[in-house]
Amino acid sequence: MTYCVGMVLDKGLVMMSDTRTNSGVDNISVFRKMHHWSVPGERQITIMTAGNLATTQAVISQLEERNKAPSERRPSILEAPTMFQVATLVGNLLRNVIEGRQEGGMQSEGPRFTASMIVAGQIGDMEPRLFMVYPEGNFIEASFDTPFFQIGETKYGRPILIRGYDRTMSFEDAVKLLMVSFDSTVAANLSVGLPFDLLVMERDRFEPLHQRRILASDPYFKSISSSWSEALRQAFHSLPDYSFGEGAE
Known about the structure:
Blueprint: E1 3-9, E2 12-18, E3 20-22, E4 28-30, E5 34-39, E6 43-51, H1 53-68, H2 83-103, E7 115-123, E8 129-133, E9 139-141, E10 148-152, H3 158-164, H4 171-188, E11 196-202, E12 210-214, H5 219-238
Antiparallel strand pairs: 1-2, 1-10, 2-11, 3-4, 5-6, 6-7, 7-8, 8-9, 11-12
Helix pairs in contact: 1-2, 3-4, 4-5
């Protein structure tokens, strides 16, 4: 399993993903699920992946091949004129990879070869945009009503995002919010784990504003984890006490 979040702010986009891939409790590996491309002064694009590893790697590998020689391997996400067309290209490629496996008889064990992706970026003077791409190849775009997308193991970290998100918040606060969301997910599900990959994409800046890998030993993440746990305990104990006495229903 995995956990990835893409978030739209007034200032730009914030992306975060875990790196755990497992086939059973005794076969756990680390694979990068966040992939970034940029053309200085012109565009930057990030894709995060969830689902079957062979499927997502096939899609990313084909995108990489097209980017190495875009004049010979079209279409390339580095040539697409809009982010909508980038999302369309990624969606078509994802669908074709999945359909190819189905036609080859590799889908006999159910939907295990499916995958979903988050596509984010900005091209030229257009708005930064965020899309969630489904296995069927179709996609939806983030909006004021739906300002962030999650893929993978989404349910444990979602309440944190819903309660804490503010479109006008700073990048630093957005990263802190994501740290809490990921910590809550890791605490509840063993299929999500560190390291985490973090990428901040500032509006009209065609290279990452901030990019890093967060390890289990990271002092800030450890501080967030322990402080959040203590804050929850304090909040719980500050709630009104329940009574079994008279008047209780």
